[in-house]
Amino acid sequence: MSLGYRRHAPVVLLALLSAAGGCNASDPVVAPPSPPPPSAPALHVDGQGAVPDRYTAELWIRGDVGYTTTWGTRSTANGVTRGNAVNIWNVAGPAPVLVDSILVADATTLGDIQVSDDGKLLVVATEFTPGSIVIYDLANPLKPQLISRFSNGDTTPGVHTAEVQRVNGKLYAFLSIDPGGGQAAKLVIVDLSNPASPTQVFVRTMGNPYVHDVYVREGILMTALWNDGISIFDIGGGGKGGSVANPVLLGSARTVGGKVHNIWWYHDASGNKRYAFVGEEGSGSIGSSAIGDIHVVDVSDLTAPREVAFFDIPGAGTHNFSMDEARGILFAAFYNAGVTALDVRGDLGGCDATMKSSDGRCDLGKMSRELGRGLADVGFPVYVWGVQSVGAKIYASDMLNGLWKIETVP
């Protein structure tokens, strides 16, 4: 799944068949109608860095350097390639330039990638058996050097996403583990304070049937538990005695449609922390179709979260998010519909009857909250996995075409 971007991350495409052994673009699905042309203004594209030989997955941008992972297997005229490469980019100019790549040994596919907040570490998640996280030193950001690889019996089925965040000053990786090999899905937390020797500090079975991703901020852990919705835990900031080694449940909520894939807890410019944005990932077919809405959950009371609004693009489905919190703009990857920018300032749960769905939730589309749409007008199919907002730019990882650099909304 970004985070910048918080992802998260990785795809669980085709009803998360990837967690059962890898999804295949040829698997049969019932394709919904193609998304209609957007009514929102087009976001200007600065340039594209092409990746024709592998499917591009997650991204992370820091300064003038970008990193993208690759995913699955892709057949081209040049043969079949695995998604076991980390691509390294110079993003200083209008178009990202591929400068190097790393092949990750013993990885069927990659997903999440993240740079630590101090810029010292690059962490990459691998699937399937043996599932792991691979940790690189970024003393030279263009030449990551392997430090260590963490894998054990709990991570063996595959690390689907890996969120790297600090809690009370200490760096941790929060790993969402695939079900498989007789094991249920679980969350594993790893202490990265000594990156040469990562240490597991927590494991718990959770998710129905997946724990797909997490969001960590201010000692609060929010988990994306697919059909169990979201659960919120105190891990040092919720006042209930929780810790990273002993999370304490605060509250839970099931969102409409289930399939909870990713979360972003929004802290606005005034310090308000009312809303969490939740991505729903339904079935899809790479390059042509997807299903799934953005759900808005009121978390002003962490013990009683409740869904109040949603955003939908007919014929397309959302994936990962990023935010420009200072301006109150949510950027969302929407697979075959490209990238959308939503104004999420103010009250999202208060709307008149003409802007509500039949179940009483506010419809952000009817509230005219969409500010712009990117990559819907490039003249060929796109399938956007992730986005990251960096200053006045948005970066988008496109499974079919590589890495895009886009102007943000004014």
Number of strands: 33
Poorly predicted residue ranges:
1-31
What's the CATH topology name?
Methylamine Dehydrogenase, Chain H
Provide a count of the helices.
1
At the fourth CATH level, what is the homologous superfamily?
A: YVTN repeat-like/Quinoprotein amine dehydrogenase
Query: What would you say the CATH architecture is?
Result: 7 Propeller
Query: What fraction of residues sit in β-strands?
Result: over 45%
Share in helix:
under 10%
Strand order of the largest sheet: 20-21-24-25-29
The profile of the biggest β sheet is: 5 strands, mixed
Distance between the termini: 27 Å
Mean pLDDT: 92
State the CATH class: Mainly Beta
Structural class by helix and strand composition:
mainly beta
Tally of structural domains: 1
Rg over alpha carbons: 19 Å
What is the general shape? globular
Note down, in words, how this protein is organized.
With 410 residues, the chain is mainly β. The chain has one domain (13-26, 49-407): 7 Propeller (Methylamine Dehydrogenase, Chain H). It is built from one helix and 33 strands. The strands form nine sheets. A five-stranded mixed β-sheet has the order 20-21-24-25-29, with no helix packed on it. Strand 17 and strand 18 form a beta hairpin. The model is unreliable at 1-31 (pLDDT under 50).
